[in-house]
Amino acid sequence: MAVKEGELLWTPRPDFAQSSQVALFMDWLRRERGLDFPGHASLWEWSVDRIEDFWAALWDYFGIESSTPHSCVLEERVMPGAVWFPGARVNFARHMLHKGQRGRPAIHHRSEIRPPATLHWEDLRDQVATLAEAMRRMGIRPGDRVVSTLPNTPEAVIALLATTAIGAIWSACSPDFGARSILDRFQQIEPRLLFAVDGYRFGGKDFDRTGELARLVEGLPSLEHVVFLPDLNPAAPRPTPSSRFWSEVMGERPVRHEDFRYEDVEFSHPLWILYSSGTTGLPKAMTHGHGGMTLETCKVMAFHANQSPDSCLFFYTTTGWMMFNFMVMALSQGGSIVLYDGNPLAPQPERLWQIAAEHRVTMFGASPTFVQMMIKAGVRPAQKYDLSALESVLLGGSPATPETFEWFYREVKQDLWVTSQSGGTDVCSAFVGAAPTLPVHAGEIQTRLLGVDAHALDDEGLPLEDCVGELVIRKPMPSMPLYFWGDKDNLRYLDSYFDAYPGQWRHGDFFKVNRRGGCYIYGRSDATLNRAGVRIGTAEIYRIADTVEGVQDCLVVNLDLPDGKFFMPMFVLPKPGFALDAAMESRITQALRSQGSPRHVPDKYFPIGAIPYTLTGKKLEVPVRRILLGAAPDKVASRDAMMNPDSLQYFVEFSRELPRYMRKAP
C-alpha cells in the first residue's frame, strides 16, 4: 500500500540519538548552564524565547575565536537592523578550517574531466594560505569583491576560503550561466578579481566558455585581476594579456598554514554575496556577515546535519547555488565533503550512488526531482552498492512527498534518517529541517530549527496551528542578510521581507506546523520560479525573451506538481505580423538557454492575446499561478486594480485544459 502523509517511517536508535551532536550540546547545557530540557521541543522553545542566551551558549560551546570581546549578544530585538555581538572581531574561514585532522581527507573530487582526487586537510589549509597571500600581494584588501565562475571543484572551495580569510567578499556564478545573467549579478558589486574557467563538460559534451568569459571581462570595468583555470583545455590561452594561470599563482610563493595570519573583521563585516532570482528587476545581492554565518554554520552543521570529524557529506550542486556554500560550511566540523562536476545521470543514471558508495558517504543530498529520475530509470541503489556507511539523506530543492520518503526506505536502506528542509539563499541555511533525536514521518519536515522563531500566520498576522499560512520569522537571527548590496535606503530589503508584517520576516512560502511540531512547505507564495531547487526570477527571463524577434510581451509561471515534478509554461504575446510558431519558439529557447541557462527554458509555449497587468504596471504572476491551481479570479485579484481585467479569463479557461499538459510534465 502507498505510504500516507504523516505515517511514521523511522525512529532513531537510542545510541544514535544519545551520541548525536545536539544531544551532546544538551548535556553541556545541563552541566554548564544548569538547563535541563526533556526533549527537542523544549530546547527549541528556549532557543526562541531566550534568543540572547541561546546564541551566547553557541558562542561558548563552539569556542568562537574573537580577537576582541563583544559588549553584548544583541543590542535590541528588532528587524531589520539587529546588531549582534558588537565589538567582536572574527573570521569565517578560520572556523571552517580549524577542526580537520592531518592525514584525513577534506575534499573528494569527481569530474567528467579529471581523474578522481582527494585533498587532505593539511594540503587544503596550505593551499588556502598560499592563495590568500597571493591575493594580498595583488592588492586585494578587506571589503574588496572577488567573483568566480569556477565549477564545482576544489579550486572553487580554496578560492572561497582564501577570499574570506583575508576579509574580502566572495561571490560566484556557475559556468553554465550566460554572460548577461552573470553581468546582471557581478556588475552590481564591482569586483576587483575574477576566478574563471575556460569551460566544462556535461554528459560527455564539452562547453567552451571562453567567448562568454571575454564578454564578462569586457562588461566588468572594475576588474583588475583575472586568475584563469584551463580545466576543459589545458592548452587554452590566457583570456587577457594580464591574466594569470591558477598554477602560476599557486606555485609562485607557497605558504604554510602555520605561517598565515587570518584577517579578523567585525562581526557584521560582509562575508559573501548570494543572489536572489531577479523576480522584479535585477537579482538582489544578498550580503551575509562573517559572524552570523560562522554561528549559523556551527549550529546547522552540528545540531541539524549531525556532522562530525567522521562524517562525509555529498550533495550534488553547482557553484551558483547556495548549496555549494553549504558544502563548504560542512568543513567546519572537521569531516569531509564530496564534490562532483558533471551530469548526475551520466554515464549511467546511478552515477551519484556509485560515488556515494566509493567514498563511504554518511549524508547524501538529493531532491524529490532526483528521486523521480531514479524511479523512471529503475535505479535500486541497495541492490548494487555498499551503502553501509550511509546514515542520513538530506532532501532539498522542493517540497518532498510521502512517496519520496518511502522510496529511500524501500530502495536505499531501512535504518535511515531521511531529512527534509527548507530555507534558502536568503539566510544560506534553513528555517525548518532535521533533528537526529526525532522520528521521521512521511512527507513531513521534522522541526523548526533552533533559534528560528518560525510560524504560519494569516493575513492579519495571527498564528495558525495545523493550517496553511505565510511563513514568518518573528525574532531576529544572526544569519539574516546584513543588507542587499547597492540597495539605497534599504528599500528593496524592506519590501522583500517586511512589507506584509512590519518588524517580522515574511519569507514568501506557504507553511504549516502541525500539533507535534512537524512542518510542511507548500511552495512559493510569491512569483519566484523554483525549478529543482534553483530559484529563477521572472524578470530575468523577461529581460532575455523581450529581445527575441517577434516577441511583444510574455508571462511565465512555475507550477509545483506531485512527486517533486513541476510544469513551467510561458504565455507569449506576439508582435503584430508575427505568430508563435516553431521558429519563434526556437528563437526564445535559444536565447534563454544561451543568455540564461537550460533551467530558464519553459516546458511549453502558449500564444495569448493579452498579458494581465496591475494599474501600476506589474504583471499578475501570482494571481495567474493561483488561478491555474484552481483559485477563483475574484479571490486572487481586484479588477479595479487591473489595467485589463478581462485578460484573466484566458487563464480560467486554460486551467481546464491544464491537466493534460501536466501529465506530460518532466
Automatic annotation (TrEMBL):
Group of enzyme by EC: ligase
All copies of domain Acetyl-coenzyme A synthetase N-terminal, residue ranges: 42-93
Entry keyword Iron-sulfur: no
Keywords noted in UniProt: ATP-binding, Ligase, Nucleotide-binding
UniProt cross-references to InterPro entries, sorted A to Z: Acac_CoA_synth, ACAS_N, AMP-bd_C_sf, AMP-binding_CS, AMP-dep_synth/lig_dom, ANL_N_sf
Biological process, per Gene Ontology: lipid metabolic process
Keyword ATP-binding: yes
Domain AMP-dependent synthetase/ligase: 101-477
MF (Gene Ontology): acetoacetate-CoA ligase activity; ATP binding
EC number: 6.2.1.16
Alphabetical list of NCBIfam families matching this protein: ac_ac_CoA_syn, PRK03584.1
Family to which this protein belongs: Belongs to the ATP-dependent AMP-binding enzyme family.
Protein name: Acetoacetate--CoA ligase
